[in-house]
Amino acid sequence: MLELTDIEAGYGRTRVLHGVTVPSGKVVAVLGHNGAGKTTLLRLAIGLIKPSRGRVLFDGEDITSLAPNQRVARGMAYVPQGQQAFGQLTTLENLQLVADGRRGGRALIDAQMARFPALEQFATRKAGLLSGGQRQQLAIARALITEPKLLILDEPTEGIQPTIVAEIEQTIMQLAAEDINVLLVEQHIGFALEAADRYVVLASGHVSHTGEGGKAATSTVRAAMAI
């Protein structure tokens, strides 16, 4: 679905990514220490920054030069790091902002509330009063209302209680079963490898290791990251 080939990119004169290639996969996890270039890679995938070299392919099309809105129109959705929501709006209002104007908008909202029961329970609560995990579920639900082919997630489990971490992991695996691809940046190695069928380890903007996901890859990834 998404393939990044020989990517060079950064900010101004600062080069962050150096010849990075990310293979296509149903769920691809991007791992690495802070400062490795993971978030830059996701920003490039959605079109917020452009590569100085390399290609971005999505569903067989070269989208390297396309703007973020054009990529969204083709079926990409991006959930940045930080459990973002409109805090003064209710849970339901946050979802309605995305669903309004879409065919079957109410059904799309209902589907995400069924996926994340806490959102239905707190539909009338202001998003700013939700827990961090509930806000993360809300952010993912908003992205899924756009009915993407690819969901890009940046650190979805950061600062979240373990019970909701497990729910988000289950959601990612369910999305793969629903034929929605996922590009995932994650610090928790066990979580990421359990959910992913492919992984890439970044170190100082270079790919240091890549392989198939699953629990069996944990020791290999920990060795690659020297942890």
From TrEMBL:
Membrane-spanning ranges: none
InterPro entries: AAA+_ATPase, ABC_transporter-like_ATP-bd, BCAA_Transport_ATP-bd_LivF, P-loop_NTPase
Signal peptide from the UniProt entry: none
GO MF term set: ATP binding; ATP hydrolysis activity; branched-chain amino acid transmembrane transporter activity
UniProt xrefs under Gene3D superfamilies: P-loop containing nucleotide triphosphate hydrolases (3.40.50.300)
Keyword ATP-binding annotated: yes
UniProt-listed PROSITE patterns: ABC_TRANSPORTER_2
Domain ABC transporter: start-end pairs: 2-227
Family: Belongs to the ABC transporter superfamily.
Protein name: Urea ABC transporter ATP-binding protein
Taxonomic source organism: Actinoplanes xinjiangensis
